[in-house]
């Protein structure tokens, strides 16, 4: 059974539409499914995602200096993307090796939970960036640590609940008419997931607009203090705004097509539409480590320590503001 197929034939576990044909098919062992090239691409994507994010998780766990709230959130994002990559690999293996209702539900639930945690972690990072600028004087306080831990608990708690829904019965294994473009999720299930994504995207868009306003206001205040706007201030402000635009644009371009298609798509449409919108969504988990981790100087230094030993382990880590990441 293809979990992601939009127009594949009904699963052998679903009731057939013809009585005699059902008896004839039931007496024959199911033929091994032909390997779908789209599934191979998803598996390759999952492998790249898992490798990239495993390095980030290892670096953050290995480096004692990376224990600030900012890096805790980056670690949460990397963990979620790592699990999503592993889920894509497991989905490919189980889809063509072990054809089981239970395995199908567990795999799709695992993927839903992982990608939900990834998107929610991006929201948490955005909130942290906003707080670091809006409450710059009180950011490094116990209240911030409590806020970060609360966001982490909420992120993974909600993600786990959404991932358990298909396993607990919110699926269409025995009701083909209720299936969405992502089997065995129901139409109402993917609608809920899409609505949650749209809400997160709107919140992130609002927060990044506010961040841009704060950055521009800070640059203007510095210019007034120095009586003129230097080229370096202009370049720094432009770079900060451009970085925020790239972050939000990448996130929207990756996930919006799939979220929209989940709402307007029909399970009888060609499966190529589902794959063509789902594959770019997985690329977001491939790009996240580059945007949020590998560009950071502390993580770059820790990579040298971990893999090359070019620096001593007692290197002091300079804590940076989340808005610099």
TrEMBL record:
InterPro entries, sorted: GPCR_Rhodpsn, GPCR_Rhodpsn_7TM, GPR6, GPR_3/6/12_orphan
Residue ranges occupied by any G-protein coupled receptors family 1 profile domain in the UniProt entry: 52-292
Organism superkingdom: Eukaryota
GO CC entries: plasma membrane
SUPFAM superfamilies cross-referenced by the UniProt entry: Family A G protein-coupled receptor-like
Main location: membrane
UniProt cross-references to Gene3D superfamilies, sorted A to Z: Rhodopsin 7-helix transmembrane proteins
Compartments it resides in: Cell membrane
Transmembrane intervals: 42-63, 70-98, 104-125, 146-170, 190-209, 241-260, 272-294
GO molecular function per UniProt: G protein-coupled receptor activity
PROSITE patterns: G_PROTEIN_RECEP_F1_1 (PS00237), G_PROTEIN_RECEP_F1_2 (PS50262)
Keywords linked to the UniProt accession: Cell membrane, G-protein coupled receptor, Glycoprotein, Lipoprotein, Membrane, Palmitate, Phosphoprotein, Receptor, Transducer, Transmembrane, Transmembrane helix
Membrane topology: Multi-pass membrane protein
Pfam family, one: 7tm_1
Family: Belongs to the G-protein coupled receptor 1 family.
Name under which the protein is recorded: G protein-coupled receptor 6
Species annotation: Nothoprocta perdicaria
């Amino acid at each position: 059974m293809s979990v992601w197929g939009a127009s594949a034939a009904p699963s052998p576990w679903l009731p057939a539409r013809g009585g005699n044909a059902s008896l004839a098919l039931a007496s024959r062992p199911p033929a091994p499914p032909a390997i779908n090239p789209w599934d191979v691409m998803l598996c390759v994507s999952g492998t790249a995602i898992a490798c990239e994010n495993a390095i980030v998780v290892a670096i953050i766990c290995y480096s004692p200096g990376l224990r600030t709230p900012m890096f805790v959130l980056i670690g949460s994002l990397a963990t979620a993307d790592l699990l999503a990559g592993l889920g894509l690999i497991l989905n490919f293996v189980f889809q063509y090796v072990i054809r089981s209702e239970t395995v199908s539900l567990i795999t799709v639930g695992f993927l839903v939970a992982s990608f939900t945690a990834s998107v929610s972690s991006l929201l948490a990072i955005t909130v942290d960036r906003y707080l670091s600028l809006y409450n710059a004087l009180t950011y490094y306080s116990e209240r911030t640590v409590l806020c970060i831990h609360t966001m982490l608990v909420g992120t993974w708690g909600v993600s786990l609940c959404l991932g358990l829904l298909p396993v607990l019965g919110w699926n269409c294994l025995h009701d083909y008419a209720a299936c969405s473009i992502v089997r065995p999720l129901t139409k109402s299930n993917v609608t809920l997931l899409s609505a949650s994504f749209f809400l997160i995207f709107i919140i992130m868009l609002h927060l990044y607009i506010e961040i841009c306003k704060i950055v521009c206001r800070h640059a203007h205040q510095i210019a007034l203090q120095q009586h003129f706007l230097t080229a370096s201030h202009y370049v720094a402000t432009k770079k900060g705004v451009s970085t925020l635009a790239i972050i939000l644009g990448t996130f929207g371009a990756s996930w919006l097509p799939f979220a929209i298609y989940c709402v307007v798509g029909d399970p009888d449409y060609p499966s190529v539409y589902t794959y063509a919108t789902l594959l770019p969504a997985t690329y977001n988990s491939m790009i996240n480590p580059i945007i949020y981790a590998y560009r950071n100087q502390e993580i770059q230094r820790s990579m040298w320590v971990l893999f090359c030993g070019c620096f001593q382990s007692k290197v002091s880590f300079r804590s940076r503001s989340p808005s610099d990441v």
